[in-house]
Design goal:
two-stranded antiparallel sheet, 2 strands, 9 helices, single chain, about 75% helix
């Protein structure tokens, strides 16, 4: 009896391997095309940073974040989500939002610090990799309304727009203690357990108050007119307000057992 069961088990195992290989031969082209553009722009950002073209490197990171947003939306709209796409997206994000911004901030501002500046850039890339790994493991267990830890695209966009902000105000970022502190702070926020709103539960089809719509139009107009100044302040405000709200929520939980 056992001898007859072993060949059947072996045959079923071989069939499952064949099925997995056949599935691996096919990937969805459209969402992975956007993901590939994300990787390409991250690679271009690295080349621009090495050549000293810091503004172009920052723009490449921002455009990469646009394609990073589109690939997930396109996959959900076309019902082409896959495990392959998730893993491929994480690898591309590590290049575009981990390595590229760390090299950008190192060559643009942290290189004069020597080993301290190199450590700050490496910490940002390392924490970004840890953030992506934790997200892949815990994505299905967490609610869609918030992120645990600062998302790596948001951290990289904050660093990129800080370059724009400094250039627009003619502020020297070479050997800047503020940029070094900002880099380390963003790195630590990525691996923290603080909650950051994802706004995935916001539906544009719902009715909104006129004041909310007016403020949204004013914000869009300000971004178009003074992007170099407003974008960094907007990202920084999002991070600071998210931290304050999460600490306030935690404060209420700490008080409730005593009361």
């Amino acid at each position: 009896m056992e001898e007859t069961q072993q060949p059947k088990a072996h045959l079923e195992e071989m069939r499952s391997i064949v099925r997995m290989r056949r599935r691996g031969m096919y990937i969805y082209a459209l969402p992975n095309l956007f993901t590939s553009m994300n990787l390409l722009l991250g690679y271009l950002s690295i080349l621009f940073s090495v050549d000293g073209k810091f503004t172009k490197a920052a723009w490449a990171i921002l455009l990469a974040s646009v394609f990073d947003t589109l690939d997930g939306r396109v996959a959900r709209l076309t019902n082409t989500t896959s495990k392959f796409g998730l893993e491929y997206d994480s690898l591309c994000d590590l290049v575009s939002f981990g390595l590229a911004p760390s090299l950008l901030v190192y060559y643009a501002a942290l290189k004069p610090f020597g080993r301290l500046g190199m450590a700050g850039a490496v910490i940002f890339a390392l924490c970004g990799a840890l953030r992506l790994a934790r997200f892949n493991v815990m994505a299905s267990a967490l609610p869609k309304s918030y992120f645990q830890g600062l998302p790596i695209p948001m951290a990289s966009m904050t660093l990129s727009t800080a370059i724009f902000f400094s250039h627009e105000l003619n502020l020297s970022i070479d050997h800047s203690a503020f940029i070094l502190s900002l880099t380390v702070a963003l790195a630590l926020l990525m691996v923290s357990t603080l909650r950051f709103p994802s706004f995935k539960d916001v539906h544009l089809r719902q009715r909104r108050n006129f004041t909310v719509i007016a403020l949204s139009f004013a914000l869009v107009f300000a971004l178009i007119s003074w992007f170099e100044l407003v974008a960094f302040l907007l990202f920084l405000s999002y991070i600071c307000l998210s931290i304050l709200f999460d600490l306030w929520r935690a404060r209420g939980k700490w008080k409730s057992p005593t009361t």
